[in-house]
Model the fold of this input.
Amino acid sequence: ADPNNGTVPTPLTNYLDTQYFGEISIGSPAQMFNVVFDTGSANLWVPSQRCSPFSTACFTHNRYDSSQSHTHVENGTGFSINYASGTIRGFLSEDVVVVGGLPVVQVFAEATSLSAMPFIFAKFDGVLGMGYPNVAIDGITPVFDQIMSQHILKEEVFSIYYSRDPKQSPGGELLLGGTDPNYYTGNFNYLETREMGKWEVTMKGVAVGAEMMFCAEGCTAVIDTGSSYITGPASSVSMLMKTIGAQLDETGYKVNCDTVKMLPSVTFHLGGQDYSLTHEDYIIWQSQFEGDVCIVTFRGLDVPPPTGPIWILGANFIARYYTEFDRRNNRIGFAAAV
Ligand SMILES: CCN(C(=O)c1cnc(C)nc1NCc1ccco1)[C@H]1CCCNC1
Done:
């Protein structure tokens, strides 16, 4: 009998409340990798043993060596993926991938070049896309679709918990097949995904304090478990930051730590519900030797049409609102995280 009754948990590591990743294995014998479970993309990639020695981001991470795996199947098709934040190039391979103890035969990309920015800062090795198949590059069937076709999950959903306390262990949980009552309270509120095949919803407004400031006529919000921050159109975010007195420097927005307690909440109107973040949720307070630094976890990002303009709700939002991604009903559920 299945001890997890049709659900499969994977504990996640929380790195500074900005990177959350879990362990998978690829190949036989198992080669271990830390990956981000990313609803903002739909492909699996890990660094390759064959990556160029000049790719700093490559040799500082675990690399897949196909010559050491007797279940490896050659493919060789070219692969490249461009995130707003960086580029990955490589080629396709097939091997046994194990997620939460579940083996699937999976086509994935061996990355032979990773842009130094941002991947030299990555504590994870690769990315496991949890997006829909129609956004998968090279038309590859994503890992979660492979798992669904095994008909072992109680429900065709997966849920994500991100801890806000860097000292808490585990720092989060991916649960395939259901939701985990240990990590949320109250009921779920559901939103239909806006467009088939993307983890995005229609947002009805963004308020600062009690005042509606953006997206009053409606806009798109992507729920991206692989993004650290909340991003919005650069002009809107810069107005929002001015309202809370934040200054932009080369690493992002910061506020004077003395003002943090008085900062207003920022509220996202989604599906008839208000999802508010307080300063506890959107400020990362770092004590550094030259004094405390208070980072605002919002970033300006202009995504070009037709995809943009969009808001991206990332880890800081998910840490406050436990999120269920429902492939059966094409909807996203939010509940208050514990
Ligand atoms: C993974 C690539 N992503 C990042 O935003 C990103 C980049 N570089 C670093 C160093 N970290 C990132 N995310 C850390 C993280 C883990 C969980 C929450 O945030 C995005 C690209 C767009 C699709 N969605 C994912």
The first helix runs from residue 56 to 59. The chain has a mean pLDDT of 95.
